[in-house]
Every structure is written in structure tokens, then in C-alpha cells.
């Protein structure tokens, strides 16, 4: 199965890592979102990206799959430069990726099976339906939802929908999976099911994962490495203990969920709190 639906781009294995970002700068107008960011995503590892809302996590992840083009800098998938690749080339390269985007919903009018085979249809001509049925069954079993093939998204809970989206993300046996806020909107137990699935896919399929999350509990549980973005730069990069003990006050503030000066300023400006209400020391 894997062979048949794999694409055949010839790409050298590279010791540097699965994805490499070199000196990436991305601006929207005058808003510099990523400022000369360099990062290597290691093969077979789970890298978690954290940082305050609006700091550029989604923008960074979109560059990893060339859904956004940088103003300057380079992005490589293995040794293959993708930031300037043609859409035709990217179509092939993206078959090596699975992605679960923020708010990335299922197609409501398609059944679970049809949702899962959607990426297969995009890249291959299906001839053997029996084989595809087995593939859908195995992907659903992987996320604990075999038997839900004929359901429609509206008949599934939020957590089940995320798991179907994950089954869809792994339909083409990706080498790398990008997750943007996979647990947002889920209760702690459903969130933990997703965490376990991320770990399981890494263990059983050896996939490389990049996970954007606000949820530090998830981050500590699944990460081999945690990267924190702030003001367009990486300000912390290391394993869970490194982050827990990081000396940077912004890192400590973020991981302990404290309200920062900038957030207080926004709240004051919006009139949600008075000018004198909540001084930073209130949160110490
Ligand atoms: N297509 C776009 N056009 C203009 N500005 C954009 C675009 N996409 C993102 N931005 C801006 O880039 C910045 C980073 O956005 P991004 O979505 O990456 O934040 P984020 O860290 O993922 O936040 P959140 O945690 O809320 O998802 C924001 O200021 C946003 O307004
Ligand atoms: Mg985002």
C-alpha cells in the first residue's frame, strides 16, 4: 500500500534533519512576524512550538510546508529547498506531510471515509477500492474510531472530529506531521487522547512531529524539544526541563500562565479593566 500511494520524488536522506529553516524573515506590511529565525526539526522527534497568541506560530508552521513564502531566508524539506519551489513540485512534496491545521475542519458533506480518502484522491487515481477500504479501516483503528466509516462530521463529538482529521492526516503515510493547536477546544481527557495519539504515531510509525500548542501540560508530555517564539525570535529552545528552568522572565511568565504587561495594556485600552486595576505584582 505504502509504495503504491507514495510519490516518487528522489530526495536524499539528510543528516541535518527533516526540516531546516534558515534565516527566515516574514513580514506582513510593516508587521515583522518572523525575524531571521533559524531552526532544524530533527528526524523522528516531536518538536513543540509555544508562544503567546499572535507571535507567529501558525505563520512559522505554514512556512514549513510552503503555504507561505518568506520575505527572505530558506526552508528545506530534507535537502530539497521548498520556499521557492513551484506549486507543481510542492504538490508532490506535500504528500510526505500530514497536517492538522488550526480550526482545520472536516468536510461536513463528506462521510468519515470520504474525508479520509480525500488526500489520496488528490494525489493518486484510486483503482483498488478494496485496498482503500482497508487503508481507511487501518487509519481509523489507529485513532480508535474503526466502525465510524459511514458517520458524518455532524454526528461526531469535537474530539472524535479531531481524531478523524488525524486519520486523514496520516492517510498518505506521511514522514512528518504538523499539528497546529490540536487540542484547542477539547476537555482535558479528550486533549490527552490526542497527546497519546501524537506519541503513538511517533513510536509506531516513526514520524517526525511539529506541534503548536498553548497547553503546557501537552507540551511537557509529548515534546522531545520545546521552542518558544516571542517578538519574531526564538527565545528558548530545549527539552521540558530546560524550559521549566529557563531564566528568561517572558518564558517563565508564559509557562506559568501569568498575565504579562502587554496583555494588561490591551485590557486597559479596551476598557475591560480600569487603568489601575491589576498591577503586574498582583500576578506575582
Ligand atoms: N495572511 C496574513 N496577512 C496579514 N497578517 C497576517 C497573516 N497571517 C498572519 N498574520 C499576522 O501575523 C501574526 C502572527 O499570526 P499567527 O497566526 O502566526 O499567530 P499565532 O502565534 O499562531 O497565534 P494564535 O496562538 O492566536 O494562533 C499576527 O500579527 C497576524 O495578524
Ligand atoms: Mg496560530
Element layout with pairings:
Layout: H1 2-5, E1 19-28, E2 31-41, E3 46-50, H2 57-64, E4 72-77, E5 80-81, H3 87-93, E6 97-100, H4 112-123, H5 129-142, H6 158-169, E7 176-180, H7 188-205, E8 208-212, H8 216-222, E9 225-230, E10 233-238, H9 240-244, H10 249-255, H11 261-270
Parallel strand pairs: 3-8, 3-9, 6-7, 7-8
Antiparallel strand pairs: 1-2, 1-4, 4-5, 9-10
Helix pairs in contact: 4-6, 5-6
Bound molecules: adenosine-5'-triphosphate and magnesium ion (MG).
Magnesium ion (MG) is lined by residues 57-58, 102, 180.
Provide an overview of this structure.
- α4 (112-123) packs parallel to α6.
- With 284 residues, the chain is α/β, with parallel strands linked by helices.
- It has helices spanning 2-5, 57-64, 87-93, 112-123, 129-142, 158-169, 188-205, 216-222, 240-244, 249-255, 261-270, and strands at 19-28, 31-41, 46-50, 72-77, 80-81, 97-100, 176-180, 208-212, 225-230, 233-238.
- The chain is globular.
- It contains eleven helices and ten strands.
- It is 37% helix and 21% strand.
- Bound molecules: adenosine-5'-triphosphate and magnesium ion (MG).
Amino acid at each position: 500500500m505504502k509504495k503504491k500511494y507514495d510519490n516518487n520524488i528522489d530526495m536524499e536522506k539528510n543528516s541535518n534533519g527533516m526540516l531546516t529553516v534558515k534565516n527566515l524573515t516574514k513580514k506582513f506590511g510593516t508587521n515583522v512576524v518572523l525575524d531571521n529565525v533559524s531552526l532544524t526539526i530533527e528526524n523522528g522527534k516531536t518538536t513543540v512550538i509555544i508562544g503567546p497568541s499572535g507571535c507567529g506560530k501558525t505563520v512559522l508552521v505554514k512556512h514549513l510546508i510552503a503555504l507561505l513564502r518568506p520575505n527572505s531566508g530558506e526552508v528545506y524539506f530534507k535537502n530539497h529547498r521548498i520556499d521557492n519551489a513551484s506549486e507543481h513540485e510542492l504538490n508532490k512534496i506535500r504528500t510526505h506531510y500530514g497536517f492538522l491545521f488550526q480550526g482545520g475542519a472536516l468536510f461536513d458533506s463528506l462521510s468519515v471515509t470520504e474525508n479520509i480518502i480525500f488526500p489520496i484522491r488528490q494525489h493518486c487515481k484510486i483503482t483498488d477500492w478494496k485496498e482503500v477500504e482497508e487503508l481507511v479501516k487501518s487509519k481509523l483503528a489507529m485513532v480508535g474510531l474503526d466502525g465510524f466509516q459511514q458517520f458524518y462530521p455532524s454526528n461526531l463529538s469535537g474530539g472524535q472530529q479531531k481524531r478523524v482529521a488525524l486519520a486523514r492526516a496520516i492517510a498518505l503515510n506521511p514522514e512528518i506531521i504538523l499539528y497546529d493547536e490540536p487540542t484547542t477546544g477539547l476537555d482535558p481527557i479528550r486533549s490527552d487522547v490526542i497527546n497519546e495519539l501524537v506519541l503513538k504515531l511517533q513510536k509506531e510509525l516513526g514520524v517526525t512531529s511539529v506541534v503548536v500548542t498553548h497547553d503546557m501540560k501537552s507540551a511537557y508530555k509529548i515534546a522531545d524539544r520545546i521552542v518558544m517564539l516571542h517578538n519574531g525570535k526564538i527565545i528558548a529552545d530545549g527539552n521540558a526541563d530546560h524550559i521549566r528552568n529557563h531564566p528568561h522572565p517572558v518564558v517563565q511568565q508564559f509557562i506559568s500562565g501569568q498575565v504579562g504587561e502587554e496583555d494588561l495594556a490591551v485590557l486597559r485600552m479596551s476598557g475591560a479593566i480600569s487603568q489601575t486595576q491589576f498591577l503586574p505584582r498582583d500576578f506575582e
